[in-house]
Write the structure tokens for this entry.
Amino acid sequence: MRNKNGIFWGLFLLLSAVILVVSQMHLLTYTLSFWTIVFSLFLLAVLIKSLVYFSIPGSVFSLAFLAILYAKPLGITNLVPWTILGAALLVSMGLSLILRPLLFKHRPWFNYKKGYTRGHHGPFVSFDYNAEPDMKTVDAPDVDVYVKMGNSVRYVKSDDFQTANVDVNMGEAKVYFDHVTVKDTAEINVNVSLGGVELYIPRDWNVVKNINNNMGNITENGTCNINGDDPDVVISGLVSLGNLKINYI
């Protein structure tokens, strides 16, 4: 799993070389403009990265935008862009439901076996996928938040916070960490797909971000105020066609 960035860039460079050579040799009957090539390379980069990180929304929507870009040579000009994007949304939702067990197995930032296991980023715990999204206070060192097509609010309280796993698919989640104590280090794992997550984090945490962004939006609100004695908290995971907002409070 550690070589995934290398695989991504390797495949991207190979495909870029093919596109460049083919376009310059005029082997295609359809003439490509400069900006068409630029957008094509960008969408191919997103597609490869989505495949490498097993992101269904990123893969489907990058293919949808490529279909819109090449509607004329593909003979689908009768399909308006909104039709293609609407179909992409339905396909993304369907494949996400069908392939969910496979995605859990191959995503490096989550491990869904029972008990503690150690992956690329550290120890993880399993999710309870039968939980209904709602509003509650959680007094535990390890917190699991699962939202699918709904909303969830979690107020975390712990004297020894260690791990939070936040999985949001086509929903919204807000998680407050202002009433927790981190003795040494902690980790917050996020997986956002076609949804939004807001994290409310004490400004005296030394936050280390290790997040893969796949056509998503990651923003920060506020500033940190840390010193040498403050705990380290790693935020890792994937944001795919979604939003992650980190609020320092």
